[in-house]
Amino acid sequence: MSSQIDHLLNESRQFPPSPEFVAQSIDDPALYERAAADREGFWADQSRELLHWHKPFTEVLDWTNPPFAKWFGDGELNVAYNCLDRHVEAGIGDRVAIHWEGEPGDSRSITYAELTDEVKRTANVLADLGVGQGDRVAIYLPMIPEAVISMLAVARLGAIHSVVFGGFSADSLRSRIDDAGAKVVITADGGYRKGRVSALKPAVDQSLADRNGEGEQQTVEHVLVVKRGGNDVEWTEGRDIWWHDVVPAASAEHEAQAFGSENPLFILYTSGTTGKPKGILHTSGGYLTQAAYTHKYVFDLHPETDVYWCTADIGWITGHSYVTYGPLANGATQLMYEGTPDAPHPGRWWELIQKYGVTILYTAPTAIRSFMKIGRQVPNQFDLSTLRLLGSVGEPINPEAWMWYREVIGGGQAPIVDTWWQTETGGIMVSPLPGITAAKPGSAQVPLPGISIDVVDEQGNEVESGNGGLLAITKPWPAMLRGVWGDPERFKETYWEKFEEQGFYFAGDGARLDEDGDLWLLGRVDDVMNVSGHRLSTAEIESSLVAHEATAEAAVVGASDETTGQAVVAFVILKESFLAEHTPEGLATQLRTWVGEQIGPIARPRDVYIVGELPKTRSGKIMRRLLRDVAEGREVGDTTTLADTAVMSIISAQVK
Ligand code: 6R9
To answer: Which of 141, 188, 301, 585 has the greatest CB tally within 10 Å of its CB?
Structure first.
């Protein structure tokens, strides 16, 4: 089986785009040349070409006060106008902006003209509630069109949204509302998940109740509530307002006012390595430029014919940049789906791709691996032949999953773009351009035109190709974060102190350049282990484990070890068919040997624990920190950001 070599991170297979793909692609090697010759001029061109500026900018980048950048600083624009009105004015108002599908199977298709009207009405409602430039609005909604409408209505007013993922608890919502000092919360009674209504409004009520503690002044004046789940809700008269009572009745006349390029657009909270979540701040002109540019070229967008689907929730940065801002700025037609991939049946995603003729799919490796686990017989029942391009984001994709994605979902033809970026970077930074780059399974490959990235050592010196190092962004980029809300010190400390001398941004990811100059992401640096002085990547060992025929999923941590400094500890979920025929002990031994053979004895896990589940955040990231606690025999730390908080006690029991 070729799968035996699939996992190695020094993959040598290459998949150039087919001649047919190249022939129709908008990707042009001249982009690299132009950006290399004049980086700032390149970004200025992109911005002028992709956006409408009410007042054109004359300055491109102001980096006189690093790390506080200004992009297109003297220009003025309206972000919502760029995503809506101008498309209607250009005569494409009849184009579908969003095909929305609810989990129970209800659906709505909304054109650009309709979406523009809805956003104008909602902006009028918010303005009546006192929302104006600079005010914060928290959005806590399921994946329904009102989520996008709300974001754009806030942006239209020059106000700042803070979207909180609907899966977060009342406590998380409360700390985010308080940190941002939100004036209005937009929520729903509930939404559909896994075949039933999951309530949202009670969490909002709870987050706004009992405010006597320090820093808990009540800033929220109103709660705007969309009726979606039909579940009973409590009501606070004077504070709570039904969306359907006010939005349809509001005027659809609303002239978009222009705001400065650096007007804040949103805050999005992301968990740091320790402590409370950081409110990552993004602003308008630079962010929208990069969101539109990357969405256009990375996805080779043909807005007249493509049906694009990004499966991310709007509660994450991927939902911000590649559900709301990028696609709508580009006048794309997209699919938006409310529910879980397996409701009401495990082929739901593939059924949707068939129903809407989706041409571009952008999703996460964790989803791909869970589909692999179920098997190809499910997607094989559907017509996926419209898919012409696949994307991956959120974590390194192991070559096995990459190959499965290409073969089973992409029909062996569709290019895959593995896109590296972060909440902080605002938009994609490293990715193949699908019409140009010969793809390598497991590598995110090359910085996009206009982006400058290096792999450096702890001191900020470039490392030789082949050696591991730290990913550093060496030049400011348009969609870069502008700060941590309310905490400029934390912004400097977290991202800029490490390479202060060079003025590089520290991403917190390990990386390696291969001899072709392609970039391999090795996971967060806190996930890079040092075993007997050798640097090992969790991603690399996980990839090897997953390539074994018995493994469904694997997570690896570095646990402290008396003799070797750190030791490799693996947590593995086995395929059910193997568990039926082998003992867990036997398989654990086999897997240890396997990794030793595939990567080298140094990588052989000290312990392999066979478990039933892995601890994941709601965005699907494995929380290795908790596994490290188990591996080191400590009490398990804070589990509140897990999708399923019971998982850790089950794992602890299994390990004992
Ligand atoms: C967009 C997003 C950011 C972290 C990042 C890195 C990991 C994201 C990746 C990837 C390898 C990729 N990451 N994409 N690692 N290859 N293609 O996920 O933002 O939630 O802020 O996470 O995710 O470790 O530093 P965010």
So the answer is: 141
